[in-house]
Design brief:
With about 475 residues, this protein is an alpha+beta fold. The protein has helices at about 5-10, 30-40, 65-80, 120-130, 165-185, 195-200, 205-225, 250-260, 265-280, 330-345, 350-365, 390-400, 440-460, 470; strands at about 10-20, 25, 50-55, 85-90, 95-100, 105-110, 140-150, 150-160, 240-250, 285-295, 310, 315, 375, 405-410, 415-425, 430-435. It folds into 2 domains: about 10-200, Chloramphenicol acetyltransferase-like domain (Chloramphenicol Acetyltransferase, 2-Layer Sandwich); about 225-470, Nonribosomal peptide synthetase, condensation domain (Chloramphenicol Acetyltransferase, 2-Layer Sandwich). The strands form 3 sheets. Strands 9, 10, 11, 12, 13, 14, 15 and 16 form an 8-stranded mixed sheet that branches. Helix 3 (about 65-80) packs across helix 5 and helix 8 crosses helix 12.
């Protein structure tokens, strides 16, 4: 292999200078503080929070070469202050965000000889760029990569630190970068900035808003068990946390049908199914789940690149639906307003949230924390128009295509049950990362299978009775 071929295979790095922005210093926003606390509980495995995106550029439009791409990346760095912000620790131990006006960022370029392999090369580059933890004080919170074929950029890769943005903000970055690379302009930038937001949240008005949100948490936690998973049931595996994955072609049609029939969102259907199964599996009459809230309702926040997402609190009372004939769909009427109430109360100071949990623990004499999370990562549910509910034969055929596996393990995650939903109209991917001391691998797969069973059966007009939910989670030889 020639030296040139070795360099092309390994990839080269191009420097992207940027200058002309403003500088500033502010406390962390509430969203940043929430992620910072989660990072502290997950170190050294905090690369778990990295966000990755791939932008194809060879599909249409004029060719984009490396000079045009580096110009677009420089413009992106100036347009979004979050990309020029680092997290610094002060001498007194406090943590702040610091905005820089100029600097240098690299873009790792990988050349491919066959354009058919460009997509795979982009995915490999994405895995490489997201695999390592960020140096929060010494590194920009974004890593860029590019795949090139015969001088043309086919794909751009972004690896993002979660302190800089959440999933919605990542989509804003991808959109803006596409426009900058194609047209040289992305239109007016968002007027709001992370520093402005941080200063508002630290103001008296911001503090009042945060305290009002935590009143919802206080009331909800008092109505729920101290935790959803109170007792270990097995010796933990090594690594301790396993991720199970269900890829289901049946779920999109089934979720759509149940949501339409009961006039709720598809996300609420999945949230309610997971909450009901957790409660049933653990013998609780009330479920407390922490769904991730985007906190993007305010007009000025819709295109703001920062971390706005925080945990909400969803409380599902299984005992509000009495009688032996009650079934899963009977829960949905109450679940919809409960979910909305939780999402409305999802912006607060994490330090005040920690203090609330400490007071609750003293009051109840036991640790209080749901340790049960739900994250629907589909940013917008895109209805395809009214469709007839799928029939039993169609659902059965789609379910035969479902795939269950364990794509990942890791040693440390600051939760016991973390459910993530992604995908589109063709298939949903549901992953469950769990502490194997509380949910052994067989139980992880049982929960994923049960979610599909509950939703698909409900869409076919045969929703499972609530009394039958524990039986869906029984695993051979394990009892759960």
């Amino acid at each position: 292999m020639t030296a040139a071929a070795v360099r092309a295979q390994a990839g080269a790095t191009a420097d992207v200078p940027f200058a002309g922005g403003r500088t500033g210093d502010a406390p962390l926003t509430w969203g940043q503080r929430a992620i910072w606390h989660a990072i502290g509980r997950t170190v050294p495995n905090d690369h778990y929070f990295n966000i990755g995106r791939v932008l194809p550029l060879a599909d249409r439009g004029a060719p984009v070469g490396l000079p045009r791409l580096t110009g677009a990346l420089a413009a992106l760095m100036l347009r979004h202050e979050a990309l020029r912000t680092r997290i610094v620790t002060e001498d007194a131990g406090g943590t702040r965000q610091r905005l820089y006006a100029e600097g240098l960022v690299g873009v790792r370029v990988r050349d491919v000889s066959d354009p058919a392999g460009a997509g795979d090369a982009a995915e490999e580059l994405l895995s490489s760029l997201t695999a390592g933890r960020f140096d929060y004080a010494g590194e920009w919170p974004v890593r860029f990569g590019a795949v090139r074929h015969e001088g043309r950029i086919t794909h751009v890769v972004l690896a993002l630190c979660h302190l800089a943005t959440d999933g919605h903000g990542a989509e804003v970055l991808v959109r803006d970068l596409r426009l900058l690379a194609r047209r040289g302009s992305a239109g007016p930038a968002c007027a709001e900035t992370p520093l402005d937001l941080a200063r508002h949240q630290a103001s008296p008005a911001g503090r009042r808003s945060g305290r009002a949100a935590l009143a919802h948490w206080e009331n909800g936690l008092r109505a729920a068990p101290p935790t959803m998973f109170p007792t270990p049931v097995a010796d933990p595996r090594t690594p301790r946390f396993w991720t199970g994955r269900l890829v289901s072609a049946a779920l999109p049609r089934a979720v759509e049908a149940v949501a339409a029939a009961h006039r709720v969102s598809g996300s609420t259907v999945l949230l309610t199914a997971s909450a009901a199964l957790v409660a049933a599996g653990q013998g609780h009459s009330v479920a407390a789940v922490m769904p991730i809230a985007g906190n993007r309702a305010a007009q000025g926040h819709r295109t703001l690149v920062t971390t706005l997402s925080q945990d909400a609190l969803f409380v599902l009372r299984m005992d509000d639906v009495p009688g032996p004939e009650a079934d899963f769909t009977d829960l949905l009427a109450g679940a919809w307003p409960a979910a909305l109430a939780g999402y409305r109360a999802a912006a607060y100071d994490p330090a005040d949230w920690d203090a609330l949990l400490e007071r609750a623990a003293v009051e109840r004499g036991v640790e209080v924390h749901p340790y049960c999370c739900f994250n629907d990562m589909r940013l917008v549910e895109r209805p395809t128009g009214p469709r007839p509910a799928p029939g039993p034969d169609e659902l059965a055929a789609l379910r035969r295509r479902s795939v269950l596996d364990f794509p990942a393990t890791q040693e440390r995650v600051a939760c016991r049950y973390c459910l993530h939903v992604s995908g589109d109209d063709s298939a949903l991917t549901v992953t469950l990362t769990a502490d194997t001391a509380f949910l052994p691998p067989a139980a992880i797969h049982a929960h994923l299978r049960a979610i599909e069973e509950v939703v698909v059966s409900s869409s076919a007009g045969t929703p499972p009775p609530l009394a039958a939910l524990p039986g869906l989670l029984v695993t051979e030889g394990a009892g759960r």
